[in-house]
Amino acid sequence: MLFHMPSRLYFGSGEIKNLKLIIDDYLKARNPVLVTDAGIMKSGLLEKILPQLPGIKVFDQIEANPKSDTINTIAKEMRALTPDLIIGLGGGSPLDAGKALALLCTNEGDIEAYEGREKYKQDPLPFLAIPTTCGTGSEVTWVSVITDVNRKFKMSIKGPKMYPAVSIVDPDLIQTLPPSIIASTGLDALTHAVEAYLSKPATLITDNHAVKAVQLILGALEGAYTDIKNNPTDRENLMFGSTIAGFAFGNSDVTAVHCISESIGALYDIPHGIANSIFLPHVLTYNLPDCYRKMATLARLSGIKDTNDMTASQSFIEMIMDLSKRLHIPQFKDLNIGKDKFDKIAEMSFENNSTPSNPRALEKKDYLRILENAKHT
Ligand SMILES: [Fe+2]
Predict the structure, then answer these.
(1) 202 φ, ψ to 5°?
(2) Other CB atoms closer than 10 Å to residue 117's CB: what's the count?
(3) What percent of the chain has pLDDT over 90?
(4) What is the CA(192)–ligand 1 centre distance, in A?
(5) Ligand 1 center to residue 122 CA distance, Å?
(6) Contact (Cβ atoms closer than 8 angstroms) between residue 27 and residue 166
(7) 136 C-alpha vs ligand 1 centroid, how far in Å?
(8) CB 16 within 8 Å of CB 40
(9) 265 exposure class (CB count in 10 Å sphere: 0-12, 13-18, 19+)
(10) Whole-number pLDDT of residue 96
């Protein structure tokens, strides 16, 4: 059983104030650059960062579901600056973009050439991750997910040298996050934990992190959604749950929920957390026959008293559906994706590398069934 997480992790309220110290004394970087998005530029969060790094070059063009052409364009400009550290600040998109750019700064060509595992020839630059949402897990994983705009496909670019050198996870950075983003990113984190726990490659070590993450996220999400500003305990529990859910899926895998959400994200630019939130209950329902015993453990840890494993698991799925409703997550029908597109989505989902990790075997026709069921809910 192997567990690998080589990133140096600073966790806690106020940790961001140590950014310069970490860059100077631990990373010994002299020419860092910052990768972020337009939302962060307007959020006020840079006031905690820029005074520590005067004159730093900021690349703020990262979009949701970051695109290969954006990454390739930024890489050309970034290489000319010869940085020695890439800092990613934001949700999953800027963090994944930062990892991809760290790779392209030491390797020639476009990002499409590096799809897959360990395709880089030179080690990527050190990467420092600063998450500002409670869902990505990217701060403790080796993968960067970038949309290939020509193929409309989400590529996974990964390798042991792509883990962040350092992650600073400061729950105060989500203090001003809008409720809708808390809901979608928090449910993305819950999906990471539940999928990691039920996935075929799960181990005792990943289970330990996944179970704790489910408890923390379910215990904190609604409180954070209602009033994150005045709720430091829920902020901390949500961020910690999200990070250790990253430990779990980074060393086991995600399952069919992410296979569908990555397909829909690539085709329609649907936010990742929303797509996961919509499909989590439907994939769990499909998976029930093959993992209801394990799912019942999650049910009981979530307060469901039922001693019958099957009905306890069904109650757990209903609980997640009810939670999504209370958090005002849209339903599949709200995304306006026509039935004629289901075949393509099912095909792409089936081809996703994580399909074999799903606890119940599934083929393209099974993905079609899950999509049909979701449409009618
Ligand atoms: Fe995710």
Answers:
(1) -55, 145
(2) 14
(3) 96
(4) 6
(5) 27
(6) yes
(7) 6
(8) no
(9) buried
(10) 97
Q: Which residues contact 261 (CB under 8 A, 6 or more apart)?
A: 270, 272, 275, 276, 278, 279
Tell me the CA–centroid distance for residue 175 and ligand 1, in Å. Answer: 21
C-beta separation of 71 from 125 below 8 A: no
User: What SS3 class is residue 89?
Assistant: strand
Residue with tokens 């079609």: 368
The full DSSP string for 306-321 is --SHHHHHHHHHHHHH
User: Which of 276, 266, 253, 270 lies closest to 344, judged by CA?
Assistant: 266
How close is the Cα of 55 to the center of ligand 1, in Å?
Answer: 33
Token pair in block for residue 17: 């104030």
Rounded to the nearest 10 degrees, what angle do helices 309-326 and 179-198 cross at? 160
Nearest to 136 by CA among 111, 110, 104, 99: 99
What token pair was written down for 264? 């829909």
CB 264 within 8 A of CB 345: yes
Query: Which DSSP letter does residue 67 get?
Result: B
Q: What is the pLDDT of residues 25-52, one digit of tens each?
A: 999 999 999 999 999 999 999 999 999 9
Number of H helices, E strands in the chain: 12, 9
Task: Write the single-letter amino acid at 265.
Answer: G
Angle at 63 between CA 61 and CA 68, to 5 degrees: 90
User: Which domains does the chain show, CATH number per domain?
Assistant: 8-174 (3.40.50.1970), 179-375 (1.20.1090.10)
pTM above 0.90, yes or no: yes
Distance 233 CA to ligand 1 centre (A): 23
* Nearest C-alpha neighbor of 181 from the set 109, 50, 90: 90
